[in-house]
Amino acid sequence: MTPVCPFVKASRPDDGSSRKPGDCPIKHGAEHEGGGRAKKEYSGESATVSPKCPFGYDSQTFKLGPLSCMICQALLFDCSKCVPCSHVYCKVCISRFKDCPLCGADVEKIEADTDLQSVVDRFIDGHARIKRSHVDMDKEGEVSENKKVIYEDVSLERGAFLVQQAMRAFRAQNVESAKSRLGLCAEDIRGRIETVGNTSDLCSQLGAVLGMLGDCCRAVGDAGSAVTYFEESVEFLSKLSAADLEITHTLSVSLNKIGDLKYYDGDLEATRSYYMRSLNVRRDAIERHPSVPSQTLDVAVSLAKVADADRSVGNEDAARDGFHEAIKILESLTLKPEEAGLEQRRLSVLEFLKNQLTENV
Q1: Quick one: average pLDDT of 159-164?
Q2: pLDDT digits over 248-283, tens only?
Q3: Which pairs count as long-range contacts for 237-246, CB under 8 Å and 24+ apart, including other chains?
Q4: Of 113, 254, 324, 343, whose CB has the highest number of CB atoms within 10 Å?
Q5: Cα(50)–Cα(237) distance, rounded to whole angstroms?
Q6: Is the backbone of residue 264 left (phi > 0), alpha (psi -120 to 50) or beta?
Q7: Residue 358, CA distances (Å) to 313, 317, 350, 354, 361 in order
Q8: pTM for this predicted structure
């Protein structure tokens, strides 16, 4: 699962970067405090308030709240209570323990806590989607019925929040929890696409989320569902500009993952086809960005994959040509001293390629 949040580039509705120089912050919902009493100036018929989660969950910061599992550190999923201590965790998380991680008490049995899970589900359903009228105060602090506060549409913020929770759960091997959160995120984005169309941002976000869902399915051995998600991810990412390196990298990785799954399934022709598509995406990327060393490494890896597929179908000459081309690319790649991580990867891939040539001599 990729650690990069697909919503990282999306500016929040209250992002200060959208202000023009000299703009009064009051227009953007900022408040001035003074005289022991908060006051707010309004210049129009309505005001816009940036939504804040009452529990403090924020996609930009790490937070453990009252609805979190203390083991996976994500929101509770399949909420279960330890008996007799009554501490609550995700069922998958606590099932690995004989003693309560919080108090050390013996876990005699585990009981479902459907009431708390219902609270968590309602919280997720409403998180970052508040949009309603609200009574507010005028300049003198008096209640005014004539002004309306509109809570901003923060669907992107909600997406970042869901992805954050999914990534925490996935890292803790709570895959079903991760799938649930990512499924909600994908559903939200699909709803937005139906409303505003296939915009670049939405296609990018949905492609990344679908790829994460593919990783979840692959982690539990559901290869068929994984391929379906990866193929849908490829479909959306292919609609985007090839000039974006992050997009092309995610697209090529999804294609390689489908190729890997086809290989494990014994479909070698399909394996080579997907590896080749990934290679072509990466060749196009390096033509657009020849000075990016990570792109050169990606091309070498794809050449190795295609060559390995050629060898598997009995085309040894094509395989050796591919391995030699990859070696040539890596040996000509010069990295800076601060790119030690890339250098380590380069040497590792180079060693693998040379071993492939010597093994079949």
Answers
A1: 85
A2: 888 999 999 999 999 999 999 999 999 999 999 999
A3: 237/203, 237/204, 237/207, 239/198, 239/203, 240/200, 240/203, 240/204, 240/207, 241/200, 242/281, 242/284, 242/285, 242/288, 243/288, 244/204, 245/285, 245/289, 245/292, 245/295, 246/4
A4: 254
A5: 31
A6: alpha
A7: 19, 14, 13, 6, 5
A8: 0.72
Query: What is the rounded average pLDDT of the residues 156-164?
Result: 78
Sheet architecture: strand order including 88-90: 88-90, 79-83, 109-112
Spatial distance between the Cα atoms of 294 and 27, rounded to a whole number of angstroms: 43
Ranges of beta strands (E only) in the chain are 32-34, 37-39, 46-49, 79-83, 88-90, 109-112, 136-137, 143-144, 148-151
- 72-110 per-position pLDDT tens digit: 999 999 999 999 999 999 999 999 999 999 999 999 999
pLDDT of residue 308: 94
Contacts (Cβ under 8 Å, ≥6 apart) of 355 = none
Which residue from 358, 331, 357 is spatially nearest to 346, judged by alpha carbons? Answer: 331
Give the Cα separation of 182 and 171 in Å (integer). 14
Coil, strand or helix at 68:
strand
